[in-house]
Amino acid sequence: MRILVIEDDKKIASFLVNGLKQAGFAVDHAIDGEDGIHLALNESYDAAVIDIMLPKLDGLSLIEELRRQKVNTPVIILSAKRSVDDRVKGLQTGSDDYLTKPFSFSELIARVHALIRRASNTPEPTGLAVGDMSIDLLTREVTRADKTIHLQPREFALLEYLMRNAGKMISKTMIMEHVYDYNFDPQTNVVDVLICRLRDKIDRDIDKKMIHTIRGVGYVLRES
Amino acid sequence: MFLENPKLLLKSSGFRLITWYTIFFIITSLAINVYAYTVISSFIHAQSRKEIQEDINDLAKVYQGGGLEALHQDVFEDEDESFLIRLIGSNYIPIISRIPKDWSTLSVQQLEKSGYPKDKEWKVLKGGDGENEIEITSRRMSDGTTLQLGQKIEEREDLLRRIRKVYLIAIIPIILFAYVGGVFIADRALNPIRQLINTLNSIVASGKIDVRVPVNRTDKLHEELITLFNSMLQKIEALMNGMRNVLDNVAHDLRTPMTRLRGTAEMALHSEQNGDVLREALSDCIEESERILIMLNTLMDISEAETGAMKLDPEEMNVAPLIDDIVDLYGYTAEEKGVSVYTGFPEELYLTADRNWVRQVLANLLDNAIKYTPTGGRIDIEACRREQEVIITVKDTGVGISQEELDKIWERLYRGDESRSQRGLGLGLSLVNAIVGAHRGHVRVSSEPGAGSVFTVSLPV
To answer: What's the whole-number average pLDDT of chain B?
Structure first.
């Protein structure tokens, strides 16, 4: 997997490049828009992380140019503005996502994975399995260690989302977006409560806990 | 240019105004004077000719009635020497001639040179000294002779000359009057502008925007301009104060969590603990920075809403499904707490508002209600349309709010005694108040400690 990072701030760029490398990606880095578009047009990438404010050529124009040239590399836009620019909204084709600074690095990795998976068009599975737990997406049946677990719709939606991203960090914001389809911050513990209920149903009485909290960052579901 | 040298510009425009006024005034007065003089002088001319005509008619009657002898007698009997009387034969030889003494021979020659007089012809001849002008008219008699009568017009011309002199002298006060009038008018016209410029200058120089231009009530147009300008200043001032308050508040409110963040990091750095403790400290740092971010965002929202800078995206929407969504969102939270949520509202409740912000208002109110309602309690969310408003009430059977705290709950970062044990930033209700205010609605609270609280949001349709 090869990622292009276009970011002019040296410190942010270095932690993006190192972090993505640690996560197992091959990373190319460009420090301005012109350099970036040159790389994006001539090399092949699985995804690109692009800052909006760039010297020489700004991020949005860069992406617009890429799309004009029929380069459909999935893009994550980094923006320092909280209110999302209308043009960014306009760019939200299926292959784009955005994050506002400051962002959690784990969330960035999770979003990069999600984008690449979406873009690769892998056939929709009918079931998911992690460790001794499996869920059937058609019958909505959940079993762990051969025992059937009854989940309410939201709980099931959360579990499905966590299992699809097994081993990857998922932030509260991402859960709000995918499980509740909300794009706003409810400033509440709604997500904590939901996680707590799900935990109660799948991890209680079992030594090997599957849902782990990463403090200040989010949650991850993994085998042990 | 305007700001570079406003005084010069003012001077020149004032000068232009004065000049134009003066020129216009002088031209108008001169035109009136010239017209008056023309009327007077032609009246005087006509009057003196009428006299001469009457005299010559009398003489003609005498000549026609009594012949040469009667005329001769009539002419030389008269002692008045100011008349010239001649009777000329058809061969140009004067039959009777009486010429005033100061009428020199040169003038007689002039008279004779001017050709044979035609009937009823008028001539003006200068006397020998060039001063005694005489106006002459003629009558052709039935026997072929011509009677001539001339009169000195010295007095008449003297009068006209005096009138001209009076007019010429009058020009000086007219010019003065015009100039003074111009200055007065220019001053009146430019004074409000000068005041405006002075105010602007003082604002630019001092940076203080609380000055106002005095309103001049004598002129409707100026009054309007100045009133508009003042209300613009007021708006700018309100906006600037708002922004300043936002900055002050945000800076102040962020200092505490920043201090905590720094403290945690510093403690970890100086401790000689193992990896796990350090990891714990780092997690604390991340959590704290997350909280700072949420706080910053919320503070910005509140401030933007309060100062009118909030970007609203109003649309006509049904608020009923929105309430359902929020109740659904908090379903598990309420269930975990052992609080039941009941709703009662019509299926359609339309209003024009920003969907996301209304959702935020509802979420914050319900979140609060669940937080402060003990297990076994209940929350009622009701909504209805009343005249031009949609009224949403959130009623809980929670701990309630004491009388002293009722006013303070809307303050930023205020946390009541009861709420200190709960999670939260103390910004939820401030945000509700600010958002509802930005929608030109209002939110009220009534509460009975121990029994519960009712929050009522009214939003205009």
So the answer is: 83
A8 and A112, same domain (yes or no): yes
Inform me whether the C-beta atom of residue B228 falls under 8 Å from chain A C-beta atoms: no
Range of the domain at A182: 127-221
Residue A115 sits in the same domain as residue A217:
no
Write the pLDDT tens digit of every residue in A133-159: 888 888 888 888 888 888 888 899 999
Beta strands of B387-438 (E only): which ranges? Answer: 389-396
- DSSP state at residue A223: -
Residue of chain B nearest A103, judged by CA positions: B290
Q: Chain B contact for A80, CB < 8 A?
A: no
A140 and A111 within one domain: no
Report chain A residues whose CB lies below 8 A from the CB of B289. Answer: 102, 216
| CATH domain B6-158 topology | Beta-Lactamase (3.30.450)
CB neighbour list of residue B294: distance below 8 Å, 6 or more residues apart: A185, A187, B425
Based on the fold, state whether residues A59 and A102 are members of the same structural domain: yes
Average of per-residue pLDDT across B353-358:
89
- Number of Cβ pairs closer than 8 Å across A and B? 59
* CATH fold group of domain B220-307: Helix Hairpins (1.10.287)
- Do B333 and A189 make contact, defined as CB atoms within 8 angstroms? yes
Closest by CA position to A120, among listed A73, A53, A62: A73
- Residue B154, amino acid: E
E strand intervals along B179-335: 315-318
> Is B250 touching A (CB cutoff 8 A)?
no
Chain B within 8 Å of A197 (Cβ-Cβ)? Answer: yes
Which of B381, B414, B386, B409 has its CA nearest to residue B396?
A: B381
Structure-token pair, residue A63: 């992406």
